Amino acid sequence: MTAPDITVNKDGETHIVKASANDHTRLIEIWESSVKATHDFLAESDFAYYRSRMPEYLSMVDLYVCRDCDGAALGFMGVAGTMLEMLFVDAGARGKGIGRRLLTHAVTRMGVDKVDVNEQNVQAIGFYERMGFAVTGRSELDGEGRPYPLLHMQRATDGGI
User: Fold this and answer.
1) For 66-116, what is each residue's pLDDT tens digit?
2) I need a labelling partner for 129 at 20 to 30 A (CA). Which of 5, 105, 117, 135 fits?
């Protein structure tokens, strides 16, 4: 699957809105694009497993989507309480500030201060550190009991955003 050609206008105009069930197909496409761009450590069988679970995962969180000025979904996040459960940006929109906009929204408007990150996803770890999060713990297995260690991160009250 190739990522759609996505551009953000010259002013970076985007908006974040609550996602609806009608968005789920596109959100799964974004997830797939993002994971293929960032999770090279993931075995193909595990990728297929997680993809099959995405509809369930999406139903377990409050979902927000970042759209461009034309309404196209560029990225999304899922929040449960003060925990960021997922944040994915379409591979074609990476590097355009979409992840930063989503995380800033989560922190400033929703009180998010925690996230778990795959230990092998060094790009994500660096992103969260730049945004004021620090590692507070580690789990040997991911939430599904698979051998993908997680780093537990928490945001310092004065950091990053």
Assistant:
1) 999 889 999 999 999 999 999 999 999 999 999 999 999 999 999 999 999
2) 5
Give the separation between CA 92 and CA 3, rounded to whole angstroms.
6
Name the DSSP class of 2. P
Helix H, strand E, coil C: the string for 25-72 is HHHHHHHHHHHHHHCCCCCHHHHHHHHHHHHHHHHCCEEEEEEECCCC
Q: SS3 of 73, please?
A: strand
C-alpha–C-alpha distance, residues 130 and 29, integer Å: 27
Task: Dump pLDDT digits (tens) for 12-63.
Answer: 578 999 999 999 999 999 999 999 998 989 889 989 999 999 999 999 999 9
> Cα–Cα distance between 146 and 2 in angstroms, integer?
27
Beta bridge partners of 7: none
Distance between CA 75 and CA 102 in Å, rounded?
8
Tell me whether strands 83-89 and 114-118 are parallel, antiparallel or unpaired.
Answer: parallel
Of 57, 89, 53, 95, nearest in space to 72 by CA? 89
Nearest to 47 by CA among 56, 38, 35, 58: 35
